Queue: 2 jobs
Job 1
Amino acid sequence: MELVSIEQILLASFLKIEPIDARMLLQHVLNESQVFLSTHPGWRLTSQQILVFNQLVKRRAAGEPVAYLIGERDFYDLTFIVTPAVLIPRPETELLVELALERVPIEQYCRVLDLGTGSGAIAIAIAKHRPLTTVIAVDISIDAIVVASRNAKKIGVTNITIINGSWFDVMAGVKFDLIVSNPPYIAEGDPHLEQGDLRFEPKLALAAEADGLACFREIFVAAPEHLNAGGWLLVEHGYNQDAACRQLMEEVGFIRPFSLPDLAGIMRVSGGQLENNF
Ligand code: GLN
């Protein structure tokens, strides 16, 4: 039987895929840490492990995202289950979680709504860090609801309710202190949708009409009637949508809308607050 070491199989795979991807796939196949890989270069793989790893390398070389191949992705300080039914959580979305947590006091009861929750990454990160808060997470996709529910169970949050529905349709008469959303915002027909990981992600979670602004319009118009006085709205958006988001927020009654850049310096999250006597 052929004996192949960690070092040998990694080197061979670097000809086909990025080293960082190869290491993540091998960690997954061996169920070992990054440290184990670097400290055991001579460790021999079983023939089954070689087979499984080589199949994953082939799929990665054909473009499939690493997160879908290994079935998980780290986000904030948690690890989320991901399937092709949901968008892969992105580091820039952690800004939305941080800004949300700044507005939800730790020792007070609050109500938070996450619209278009997908894997549940945003809603579950908020619920985990604010145990007294009740989080409602909504998604139109039943497949996404299944993934978000699995994540809530795995991560062990109980202060969250995950509901199937379209934006506020299932929220008649319900009010919150904070509404967050990372809706689809890429303009339909944008060539990026046909590139990289995006090709494998659900279009429903990525693309929106009206230059990608359609969902913001829908959410912003209905948000004030679902917020308590002084309540906040926070959304993630595309690199060129901050001014449009601030303007739309102002039009529907939010005061002093603001935008903040992500770590790459790209305007990524915009927010607004209702007057205290709204
Ligand atoms: N940030 C994602 C991207 O551009 C898009 C996410 C979204 O549409 N909500 O890859």
Job 2
Amino acid sequence: MSSLTGRDILSIADLSTTELVDVLDLAADLKQGKIRPNCNKTLGLLFYKASTRTRVSFSVAMYELGGNVIDLNPSRTQVGRGEPLKDTARVLNRYLDILAIRTFDQDDLQTFADCSEIPIINALTDLEHPCQMLADLQTMQETFGKLEGLTMTYVGDGNNVAHSILLGGALVGMNVHVATPKDYEPSPAVVAQAKEIAGDRSNILITHDPKEAAENAHALYTDVWASMGQEDLANSRIPIFQPYQLNSELMAVADKEAIALHCLPAHRGEEITEEVMEGSQSKIWDQAENRMHAQKALMASLLGVV
Ligand code: CP
Ligand code: NVA
């Protein structure tokens, strides 16, 4: 039985380095069809924000594990009409085997975890996007055959994706460089946690200089300049973030084998150019596919079906 059985994954740092590497190994075996676990479990999806990749990749992953999926759209469930989270959590706990939640506040996710015995998975909060990071690491592993010692550079907003890159990268011994405009840095608490995890093994660099961050990097990664819930700030942020665009000029500063990553959805011409997205160094579509394999491995481990 996996050491992850029954656990909650609210942060990528809820996994130890060994557990994270085991999930990535399992994801690779599942992708190659070497293992075909079969469960009869039910996954609930409780998403307060829009989603294409996360919703579909979790659903297909659970179907391929031989289980079922229930989409608990908050606008059609009582929680959307004000039923307390702790009551909803205790009831869903009696029906479901595992629950993936996409919401705003990490504390709401924590409430679900505190009131449930089934595994709760963070499917994105304002603080973190751990399942994205699993797929990102799988894509790096496939490309370079290793993770330790590589440099992952993120340019743009110090948001949920940046936080999971900092923590996940540190866990596997990667150098993580993050370049943001002033006042858009990642959370100091997350940076401190990443530095503590990295220790002497790898370097965590937070800078305002995208070229400094990109130098000799093995992956250049970006995300939207205004996340879900920040739509009204999008236009005012464009001039602030323009120097942090992932474009050919920045790719040229990175290692010549470097890959371009983006969690999607992307705004071409804003945080990333069409040329980089569609260029030969882009691994963005493999990265999106790997959401499915990585989450399948995570769910199989949490459910103890591998
Ligand atoms: N990358 C990601 O989480 O995409 P969705 O918002 O479409 O799920
Ligand atoms: N930072 C983005 C990621 C979307 C997958 C958001 O939270 O909207």
